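INTERNAL TRANSFER SHEET
From: sequence group
To: structure group
Subject: Ribonuclease PH

Please process the attached sequence and return the structure record in the designated field. Keep the field labels unchanged so the import script can parse them.
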Amino acid sequence: MRPSGRKLDQLRHVEIETGFTKHAEGSCLIRMGDTHVLCTATVEEKAPPFLKNTGLGWVTAEYGMLPRATNSRSRREAAAGKQSGRTQEIQRLIGRSLRAGVDRSALGERQIVIDCDVLQADGGTRCASITGGWVALRLAVNRLLASGAISSDPIIDHVAAVSCGIYAGQPVLDLDYPEDSTAGVDGNFVLLGGGRLIEVQMSAEGTAFSRTEMTSLLDLADHGVAELVAAQKRALG
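Return from structure group:
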């Protein structure tokens, strides 16, 4: 029934390759099917000005797509002189999501910037960015702990995200582009590893959805995030 031949509750093949770049404090390449995102974490030894003398750290994110991440070339946003509304919305989502899994007092007055660069897009780039971004964050925090820069682990829990939607009348997990572009309902679900919700973005692209359908998508998201957390753990060894 699905264009990919997957079962309704089946993720695309997930691979997370850590240490993908040489210089960043944490990095990984996450592949979810044909969506590939490079995630890097940079530690900055000062917090943003609004957190000065609070003892709190900060985690933020930037997101972008390479010009040929899709089937036609998109203009670089730097060339246009401004970020699109979509880009700003996605990077704020990534930052919010990752901060939900961090004890900012244990991080101390420093900032970790997560850069998510989409090399190839086939749907679900924001979800892949959150899932891979957490791995890069985890690796950067491991360095801080190993160096003695911080004494206690600020990571509270895993953070991962997955898309779910109603496609051809059926609730499905992890939409690729052919499904995402025609789904009647499309949603992104961000969860902690323990199952608590961080953020849900859902909208009807066609017919309105019922509470029962929403519950079925939440159940699929629980299942998908559990598998993504398992993939994060495998990648980190």
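Handover comment: Residues 61 and 114 are 4 Å apart (CA to CA). The first strand starts at residue 14 and ends at 18.
Transfer complete.
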